[in-house]
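the two lines:
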Amino acid sequence: MNPILRVENLSIEFGGIVALNQVNFQIPRNQISALIGPNGAGKTTLFNCVTGFYRPREGKIFLHGARQTSELCGLLNPGWLSRDLGLLQSLQARFFGGSHVLNHLGVARTFQNIRLFQQMSVMENLLVAQHTKLKGNLFSGLFNTQAYVNSERTALEIARYWLDFFELSPYLNKLAAELSYGQQRRLEIARALCTRPQLLCLDEPAAGLNPQETAELSRLLQRLCAQSQLSILLIEHDMRLVMEISQHIIVLDHGEVIAIGTPAQIQQHPQVLAAYLGTEYG
Amino acid sequence: MHLKHALKDALLVGVLALLLFLPMTGIALAENYSFNARLHVPFLLAGMVMLGRFIFSYALHTYHSRQWVKRLIHREDRPRFILRPQRHWILLILFIFGLVLPFTLSNYGLNTAILALIYVLLGLGLNIVVGLAGLLDLGFVAFYAVGAYTFALGGQYFGLGFWGAIPVAAAIAALCGVLLGFPVLRLHGDYLAIVTLGFGEIIRLILTNWIEVTGGPNGVQVPTLQVFGFEFTRIAKAGGVPIHEYLGVAYSTAYRYWFLYLVLFLVVCAMIFVLNRLRSLPIGRAWEALREDEIACRSLGINPVTVKLSAFSMGAMVGGVAGVFFAAQQGFINPTSFTFFESALILAIVVLGGMGSTLGVVLAAIVLTLLPEVLREFSQYRIVLFGGLMVLMMVWRPRGFISLQRRQFEGAA
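prediction for all of em together
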């Protein structure tokens, strides 16, 4: 296996409650992987570690990007002067959190409860996502220099591409708050994709969607994975969706990995069945 | 049914009112230190309360009044008027009107107009911090004070002139903005408001108590206004040439105000242009995104630290420039001009104009500075009026009366 993400001995606890305990797994490149488990298993906690919102107590997370391999926990918890980050970024990561750096390395995510910029238009949401890619400072923008105009044109093109892909083109000037729930879910994925990630983490993308919208989403995600150099990791409770689109499944329960395998293997796995349905002998 | 309910309600309230009013108004102190009973007063007052309550609760139970109340408190989240960019000619007319205006005004009118423009500038500055970036700042007056004192003290100690003071004050105020920004980076909402409030007070207290440098409560003289060697006084004070002598016209105090007004007007126009442009630039979008959702910003790779600091420093810069004009207009400044009430007033301008709406802020600033002048006779009720306006604004149009249209994008070709 040629993994994009490798998690080693990841542990984190909140006030004595062990949320993740010695978690080990790998995520294959250019495939859809699913992270499943009962409520409270630690799925979202794991997500927050991978995307930099939590700092794990111990363990390592390696992102094997196209150009370089980075150890994410070290970036979030640097010393005073980390060689990868430089002085200012290290200080910032120490005092104010540096999770935004992980996005620059190619990790993008969506949220369980949609977090769009509600009072901004659909297109503006997608342009904000390309903030770090837009060339130029205040003055080149104010005076419309050629470099700025060009980079904005590229950003608009990328935004239009994803709008088209997620069938949101007619709504580009609407406020995000005015979209339907399903459209908001799709816009959030489009926004994450606008940051040009290598690993896309989706936190319950089908939550709150009707069966038709879920089928639509499943089609879009499969197309997405097939045509772009993208690995997808998703948390989902809709088992039909998970079994349909994912090639690789990781099952968490009580903060521990209880099974890893293909959908067919997972469906037969005795421990998974026990975790979801309970055991006969208590 | 309603009648019975309303009567019962009124009776209960009446009894309560009577209990309250009896000791408060029923006994009067007589001249010889004894008490006189004046029982008709509490009964009259309680009767009035009862009647009012009856009318109120009876009216509220009818269908029509309910509909009316529902309409009244139905909040619309978008401004009613949206100014499209196609209507540039309106802006052009306003611009020319603004240029011609000072020559038609008396000195009193000019002074008021300059004050109004200063508040427009302050409103625009705070609008960046509160309206766009969503960081509630209750100490904005600090930057205003820094700007004003930079001009006054810079002139006194380093011979800083008016033109030099503008960029220097902008830079120092921006630096103060960053200084304030750092400790509050991790704070939100109420906590942020408290710290910024404290910052405003700290600056004022420093200005009041550092007597050797700032002159303390006695204030400090602002250097005479001098532009390219010309002065606006009757006799040259700072070694320049009085402008009326150079031009060979009669002396008038209005010249100084005209000059100040015109420069200030151009600065305000430039600021409006820049702010509007900023909103469609990456940094302006990042500010707005930060207001909407900081966590989402971080997940998209935006560094919230730099975005917040840039908002604080940009806002502070504008406030500092406004301070220079204030000092130039007043000719003499002391710390009493920079109290918390000023911060509250500037915040009222931003809230009244509608958070984040540039045009609304301009209108609100003009209204809030002209209102006290128009309502001189009712000056005691001014604050009540402000409060009432703010409440109505929050209920009806939290996003302002008027706004420029958001940037429209073209679809895929």
